[in-house]
Batch of 4 targets.
Target 1
Amino acid sequence: MPLGSRDRPLRDQVCEEIRNRIIDGRFAPGDRIVERELAEELAVSRVPVREALRTLRVEGFVEDVARRGVIVRRLDRRDVEELFDVREALEGMACRLATAKADARGLRALQRHLSRADKALRSDDLAAVGKANADFHDEIVQLADHHLLAGMLEPLQGRLHWLFQQVEDPKALCEEHTHLYEAIASGDPDRAAAEAIRHVNHNREVARHLLFPEA
């Protein structure tokens, strides 16, 4: 499956492709990623694959295991809890800032992501639902217009998008995003921050149940 656009560096395209495969489950935890095979499949040299894997190590998606090579990393319960801790703090802040700064154009952008999610839900396209929901959260960060916050979130975005896929009831999640949108549109930063924290903590409980049922 050769990559398309040549407007971006190959390493970035390869990195995005591998990351997306991990997020949507095509590469499962524990799967090996063989540099040579992936380079052949993507019709690129091994150099951008090697560079992409270096980035994904830093992001926490892959790791090196003796006698196995590069594998998709299994996130343990502590990893997930810490991600939710950070997400709760930063997302509450992002929603507070977005509420104070969002204009009509920004609110329409959020509405478009909600509409995409609803359309995908009616088509039973769960991958598209997940993408629209992740884009909804990314849009909030854009509306917050806070460079330091965006910089802190950037190395976490891939893993946060992976968390967005841990969904038990996609319809309920879309309804939560509608409530979050309404809180932001209300112009009340305190309401928006509280709704964001409520949303994150509900998703934390769902992820615990799905990822660690034995606990």
Target 2
Amino acid sequence: MKAAVVVFPGSNCDRDCKVAVERSTGASVHMVWHAETALPPDLDLIVLPGGFSYGDYLRCGAMAALSPVMPEVRKAAERGVAVVGICNGFQVLCESGLLPGALLRNSALKYVCKPVDLDIVRPDTRFTRAFGSRRRAVMTVGNGEGAFFADADTLSRVEGEGQVVFRYADNPNGSLNDIAGLINTGGNVLGLMPHPDRSFEAELGSADGALLFQSLLETA
């Protein structure tokens, strides 16, 4: 498997993602600076990592969504390449229109960092098939603006089209419908607030994040 991690100014989980993908899958992982206008050829996976891209100015992910590399990420997504946006990366995907909705301030107006239980709503996606018959996963959240929001029509469409992949068992941030992660209608773009890159080995408290990355080996 061949993967790329996009690095924005303010990313702080980019190397975590690189290590997580490498150790989970044995993939070759390229680090791509946000100002690049081309991606490595023949990618199987693109990761938009967590952090505080552009210092979270304007809105989280809003400036990163306009980075020179993002048109290439969009083209890759349109070709069917798997794209995962984690935490700040989820915000970037929403701001760039690759996923619906937006991420708002946590309902308690506080930064939340802790392991959370997730219900696996869609075990049949290319990002979750390695979970097998399991319907619960544990990953770590770390965000101040992680509350998923969408207008009523969009939320109804997201639910109706089966785009919700993960839900919080105990909602830590006020996300509508307990949404922790969702997928595009094409099934190849996933955004999630919990960090699989902080939960990919037992020594980290959970190895469940590795299963997310390992799910992609079947389509690489």
Target 3
Amino acid sequence: MNICVFLSAADLDDRYTVPAREFAELLGRGGHTLVWGGSESGLMKVVADGVQEAGGRLVGVSVDFLAAKARKNADEMVIARDLAERKALLLEKSDAIVIMVGGTGTLDEATEILELKKHGKHTKPVVLLNTAGFYDGLREQFQRMEDEGFLPLPLTELVFFAKDGVGALAYLEESAGLQ
């Protein structure tokens, strides 16, 4: 399965890097392909290293203004013209999406992917990997949106919140009929 992971390129502490590495190793050992922003820095590097070292493939989609930070030994690397094209290519090349911890770029990617799913523009499973409760506030906000009628479909059909990588991957594999 080609699994797109949206996540930070920042250097983060162990409470985020250790679970990210564990999830990456699960992907690689499971024979999955990581589709990601292609960066050779921060959490993006941690996940790419873990997937590659565990036997998985890497498909990166960088953007021209970040091309100098792109991983050199990815199995495939595409350089998009801009962030909009990058997001479209990441979605196109993936079978499922996992949103890990990140900043405004990750949040932008997450909300666009969920908006496209809400409107039926894709039906791929989406998981928010809620490492260390990072997305507790967002989950509460989404629940409020559902409760107050802002979502045209149940939150459970839009996104799955996973506490850890094992739960995230199990949900994706079940959604794809691999379990």
Target 4
Amino acid sequence: MSSTLPERIEGLYWEGIQTELDERGYVVIPRLLLPEECAAIIGTYQEESRFRSTINMARHRFGIGEYKYYQAPLPELLQQLREGFYPELALTANRWLAWLGSEERYPARLDDFLAVCHAQEQRRSTPLILKYEEGGYNCLHQDLYGDVFFPLQVVFVLNEREADYTGGEFLLVEQRPRAQSRGHVITLEQGSGLIFPTHHRPVMGTRGYYRTMLRHGVSTITSGTRYSLGIIFHDAK
């Protein structure tokens, strides 16, 4: 494994990732973050100056747990993840737009895309850290935050399944038009990530591509404490 996070991101098998995203809509990235990097991110949780907002999920009926949005400028590791993943995922996003018949395209660089967000008054940073304790869960939802959104996002699990917590599987539910929903249950190890759709993805049908809507969540934590990191590429109003 390369010594720096940008090198590890660049060294991912992006051709295979692109293919899997097109075929399934999501892909697991195995153990990209080192244990010490995971620990460093968890360590920021108590540093309140790093965050712009803290959300009690039960208060808003989002589930049971807590999450915090990082304040800009982001910690270096988070900025590297956001900048490293965006260009490759923009290729997928633009391919999906073309398949769905849209002439819109996402910029090749994250800074240029964020400028589009800011022009629409979406200026608040969205990367976040989530904490669930025993009995916690996250209801099915989408992370949109405004009219401008990027169609893919990434989540990383920061501590060790079975050692630090049990339960807490990632849930991804796909609503197909005029059909029953399809669910995916995805188990992630410490440092591994999942790329998945923010809102919808294209699926080939008998008359060409159509959109299927997706929502995501987290199943109930049965013991311990689970931390995860969400990398969302659009900013919020």
